Amino acid sequence: MTRILVVDDDRGILNVIRKALEKEGYQTDTLDDPEKLDFRRLNDYQLILLDVMMPGTDGFSLCRRIRDQVDCPILFVTAKTDEADLMTGLGIGGDDYITKPFGLGELRARVAAHLRRENRERKHVITLGELSFSLNSRQVFFQGAEIPFTKSEYAICEYLALNRGQVFSKERIYEHVFGYDGEGDSSAITEHIKNIRAKLQKYGVSPVETVWGIGYKWK
């Protein structure tokens, strides 16, 4: 059974999210104090939802502490929507944002989309120039050295690389990668692309090209 962890200091919101996710068949654990998190159980979860604004240890701080220990998607639930916060969350390894107030339909759709992406079967390796993609393990390598992409960054790179030369809008990329076309999602893709470029530039490659007014393509 798919197991999800939800961390939020508001017990009312925790109960609403837990009931919504349990109706979808997910086993849902809730925690109202991030300091009580049992780090030994982190790998039991297939997805983690973190509130950003919590007293003491906020969602960003908690993400920094656990990102190296877990490989599952981390989604932020937050009322903070300015670009700086978005950049921070995605830059430290978050995969997506759910903005408060949110509808339960949107919550379920985003969670399901990320879980579907995790469960896709992949069996091949492709090589583009000095970069190679392991579609089975969802890794990108430069001359044998792994580039440390997050899952969302990898998914965007794979989509663009497999459709090399084609131009895709930010909205189209989001819809394909995450399976849910919601308002405001294009800004998340913009920040993911920035992170992807920064990591690729360390290896001296820049295959992601901006087509102004349209979107992005893999050269």
At a glance:
The chain has 219 residues and is of the alpha/beta class. Helix content is 38%, strand content 21%.
Description:
The protein has 219 residues and is an alpha/beta fold. The chain has two domains: 3-119, Rossmann fold (3-Layer(aba) Sandwich), CATH 3.40.50; 125-218, Arc Repressor Mutant, subunit A (Orthogonal Bundle). Helix content is 38%, strand content 21%. It is built from seven helices and eleven strands. The chain has helices at residues 11-23, 59-66, 83-91, 104-119, 151-162, 170-178, 185-201, and strands spanning 3-7, 27-31, 47-51, 74-78, 96-99, 125-128, 131-134, 139-142, 145-147, 208-211, 215-218. The strands form three sheets. A five-stranded parallel sheet has the order 2-1-3-4-5, with helices on both faces. Helix 2 links the parallel strand 3 (47-51) and strand 4 (74-78). Helix 5 (151-162) packs across helix 6 (170-178). The longest helix is centred in the C-terminal third of the chain and has 17 residues, at 185-201. It starts with a strand and ends with a strand. The mean pLDDT is 89. Residues 3-115 form the Response regulatory domain. The modification 4-aspartylphosphate is found at residue 51.
